[in-house]
Specification:
The complex is a heterodimer of chains A (about 280) and B (about 300).
Chain A lengths: L21 H13 L2 H27 L6 H9 L1 H6 L3 H22 L1 H8 L3 H35 L12 H26 L2 H19 L4 H10 L1 H5 L15 H25 L3
Helix pairs in contact in A: 1-7, 2-5, 2-7, 5-7, 5-8, 5-9, 7-8, 8-9, 8-12, 9-10
Chain B lengths: L1 E10 L2 E11 L3 E6 L6 H8 L7 E6 L14 E4 L11 H10 L5 H10 L15 H13 L5 E5 L7 H16 L3 E6 L2 H7 L2 E6 L2 E7 H8 L2 E6 L3 H10 L3 E4 L5 E4 L3 H10 L6 E6 L2 H9 L17
Parallel strand pairs in B: 3-7, 3-8, 5-6, 6-7
Antiparallel strand pairs in B: 1-2, 1-4, 8-9, 10-12, 10-13, 11-12
GO molecular function, one term (chain A): ABC-type transporter activity
Protein name (chain A): ABC transporter permease
Keywords (chain A): Membrane, Transmembrane, Transmembrane helix
């Protein structure tokens, strides 16, 4: 008991004044993210692996050019950006899903959430600050990954399907790819906040992206087609295409908007739940 | 000042906290005592806004915890369950909590020093022993230099040195004018730490009084007499108005008369005494007696002989 400073007396107003701002909470959430080593490593590995796989897949596309049928060749020629971003980035989106769920569910599984809510008893600002910091981080990493992938993939593809950043739709697709990853991260974070359990949350989100979404494509008729097109990852990924392809039901920004809508709904549900449920 | 007014919490059809009202005053250590499952932790979670009460209200300085702007400087809390991300160092755990209230890095280092974790401050909290975890929890509670402290079973997992440390810490925090509210299921621990006791059983208030009063009220003095002339002496003492029972070993357990008077009576009749010991009924037993009807997880314990 050496260095206790003068403690709060009853005269200090304890409520009704200005509480800690969102800036304080975001700084705190940033400390949380950067001080868990596994998160830092996951992000670094994610970037490296994505770039490596992008190089690998585009190289394979070029090597197997002659074996590909005419339709495939036409698609790659029409939309080289979509071809590049449709390879390694698929890996990134899984990692982003896992990290998004972990960002909040790990607080519940370790009990950290109790310390967090003791410090900030109003639930919604905690969710807002966490979501904002995580989304900004994924946006930054996502843009690096997207541009990195493009600049690695474009020269490899150059002999078969030349593309440059200045071509129509290319810059939008590459920048949009980072936006897509950030939104997907928020989507996963909201799901993690609702499910509150790391393993279950990851299973549900990854299962949704990897299993449910492709399976919805098998639904018969135009109803099935519409359901598939409006699923969050299917819709959001439209932004990474340089040009619309035949049979697309949503444009690039429309698609990203659909993902944003899904995310907003899930975040709203998460916010209401956090307020209502016991921690 | 912490106040509970008619607090009630149900889980399904089970009432865990039942119409509980009490006040935790500043300047003293208030012990919160009850058997396991009595609802102590739940009550504390209600005070701290982690759970919502089904009825009643809990306030700190007149304000519900959830409406506090900078709660860490009003109430510091140590919860029974761990509340630390296992992958984060003690320093960063405290730093991220401090940053939510604009508390500086210097204060973080100060509390780490105060609880004696300086040498492991940058190690992952996942590798901490139970005792180190408790110290980290205390550090988090002290972070905002709060006027009140809520500590759930703080001596859990601490070694004897740690237990003495926490006792002294709680006493000095109370001496500085803070309200200290500390739960325990161990009567003897509370007897040496708390100035005031709030005892609950099955979520209901059983006692709310000073520790002294509680001890006075709930323990009875008895005298153990070992003598070869048991039958004679017993008759003598009964005539004096004492209550005498024979123990299993054939000794006398005497209440209602003081040891010197027993010795005088024995000497006057020339009876031999081998032992004459004044005993105070154990506080632990008194506590068990008090909460007997309110014990949640009743085990079939064979009745122990001894103090009646």
């Amino acid at each position: 008991m050496s260095a206790t400073t003068a403690f709060a007396t009853g005269s200090r107003p304890v409520s009704g004044g200005r509480g800690p701002g969102l800036g304080n909470l975001m700084l705190s959430e940033w400390t949380k993210i950067r001080s868990v080593r596994s998160t830092v490593w996951s992000l670094a590995i994610l970037v490296v692996l994505t770039l490596v796989f992008t190089a690998l897949f585009t190289q394979m596309g070029v090597s197997n050019w002659d074996k590909a049928d005419a339709a495939q060749q036409a698609e790659m020629r029409l939309d080289p950006t979509g071809t590049i971003l449709g390879s390694g980035i698929l890996l990134s989106q899984l990692a982003v899903c896992v990290m998004g769920v972990m960002a909040i569910a790990s607080e519940y599984s370790t009990g950290m959430i109790r310390a967090s809510l003791l410090a900030v008893p109003r639930r919604v600002p905690v969710l807002a600050a966490k979501g904002a910091v995580f989304a900004l981080l994924v946006l930054a990493v996502g843009e690096v990954t997207a541009f990195g992938s493009f600049f690695i993939g474009a020269p490899i593809l150059d002999s078969k399907a030349p593309v440059s950043l200045g071509d129509p739709g290319v810059l939008r697709a590459v920048v949009g790819c980072g936006l897509y990853l950030a939104l997907l991260g928020l989507f996963a974070l909201a799901a993690g906040a609702i499910i509150r359990h790391t393993a279950a949350g990851i299973t549900v989100v990854v299962g949704f992206v990897l299993v449910i979404t492709p399976m919805a494509d098998l639904l018969p008729g135009s109803v099935g087609e519409h359901i598939h097109a409006w699923l969050p990852t299917q819709a959001g990924f439209m932004i990474t295409q340089q040009h619309s392809r035949a049979g697309d039901l949503l444009g690039p920004w429309e698609g990203l908007g659909v993902l944003a809508l899904w995310t907003a709904v899930l975040l709203a549900v998460a916010a209401v739940q956090m307020r209502r449920r016991d921690a | 000042m912490i106040e509970a007014k008619n607090l009630t919490k149900r889980y399904g059809d089970k009432t865990v906290v039942d119409d509980l009202s009490f006040t935790v005053e500043p300047g003293r250590v208030t012990g919160f005592l009850g058997p396991n499952g009595a609802g102590k932790s739940t009550t504390m979670r209600l005070l701290l806004g982690l759970d919502r009460p089904d009825a009643g209200e809990a306030t700190v300085n007149g304000v519900p915890y959830r409406e506090l702007d900078r709660p860490l400087s009003v109430v510091g809390a140590l919860l029974e369950a761990r509340a630390v991300h296992t992958g984060r160092s003690a320093f960063h755990h405290l730093l991220c909590l401090a940053q939510t209230q604009g508390i500086g890095r210097r204060r973080v280092e100060e509390v780490i020093e105060q609880v004696g974790l300086a040498s492991v401050a940058h190690k992952r909290a996942g590798g901490f022993s139970l005792g180190m975890g408790q110290r980290l929890g205390i550090a988090a509670a002290l972070l905002g230099d709060p006027a009140a402290l809520v500590l759930d079973e703080p001596v859990n997992g601490l070694d004897p040195e740690g237990i003495v440390w926490i006792r002294n810490l709680m006493k000095s925090l109370a001496a500085e004018g803070r309200a200290v509210f500390v739960s325990s299921h161990l009567m003897n621990e509370m007897a040496v730490t708390a100035d005031h006791l709030i005892v609950i059983g099955r979520g209901r208030l059983v006692a709310d009084c000073s520790t002294e009063e509680f001890i006075e009220r709930s323990t009875e003095r008895s005298v153990l007499v070992r003598t070869p002339d048991g039958t004679q002496l017993a008759g003598l003492l009964r005539r004096e108005g004492a209550t005498v029972t024979r123990t299993a070993e054939g000794d006398l357990d005497v209440t209602g008369i003081e040891a010197p008077r027993i010795a005088e009576l024995a000497a006057a009749d020339g009876l031999v005494l081998h032992e004459l010991t004044t005993r105070r009924g154990s506080l632990e037993e008194a506590f068990m007696e008090l909460t007997r009807d309110a014990v949640e997880y009743d085990a079939d314990v064979p009745a122990a002989g001894g103090v009646k």
